């Protein structure tokens, strides 16, 4: 908490003494940037490789020092930002107080970020990331004026990708370290309600363009397959299906709420991106996408590469593009690229983002 406060004090001083005006930033009080000004990203390891998590290298619980291959630039929202020709989002904790950097987009995500606060752990929860985003917006308003910043925020895209770490915590990380907790639809309801509240709170701060990404099919992730093999309660297939059914329930309810919000709130452009169904297609028809291995992690140890995560990139397979899974729970850059292409334009997979694709969201006016 102290580091966060220190950051904001430094940022306020830097902005106030920098004498940066809206005109100098290329903004004016009556300007509505088009079609999008920047991308702001909130989420978990699906949008952050660990660089934006304080002390991640010491306390990472998923045993993967490298939850993605290369850098954040290989992840889905960053690939989409490239298609929009937007600047790379800068990790929140690497900010140096530059208003130029903030206006270019910020990644508030944390590799182990959760929707629900995980008790004794101090990873960046959804609410913590929202507070950071709201503080950044307020700081911009102090410097550039509310009307200018309102226009800027309305045209910017906010990308939310949460839930994966909550399911991992719920099913796998119980106190004994073995077995599974009983699934409960109440759990998915709580997660979806929190995400819905987050979208409404963003809308209240003049955010209008929002992408909500679903959770991928965790029941087929390498570490989950390994745990299911060792579970005495059911077969591996039944175990995987149990987890995937809860993930599907979460995705379904989140999409339903996205539709309701879009209808209720004037000017709201909220879309749901179904990464679950897309990855199921890749795993069901791997040859069509140049994929050879749908079970084993490219970077991991043990059966399925699921007993230990990617602690060194030197242990990775020779060609990650032939794998669906990079490590314990995360897809390879090749799969992320396929997801980005489909989310952007509907090719190779159509309608994974609904009710419009990201390109249409990017071009929409508010």
TrEMBL record:
GO terms for molecular function: hydrolase activity, acting on ester bonds. Keywords: Hydrolase, Lipid degradation, Lipid metabolism, Signal. Belongs to the 'GDSL' lipolytic enzyme family. PANTHER family: GDSL LIPASE/ACYLHYDROLASE FAMILY PROTEIN (AFU_ORTHOLOGUE AFUA_4G14700), OS12G0126100 PROTEIN. The keyword Kinase does not apply. Pfam families: Lipase_GDSL. It comes from the Eukaryota. It comes from Sesamum angolense. The lineage of its organism: Eukaryota, Viridiplantae, Streptophyta, Embryophyta, Tracheophyta. This is GDSL esterase/lipase. Residues 1-22 form the signal peptide. One of its GO terms (biological process) is lipid catabolic process.
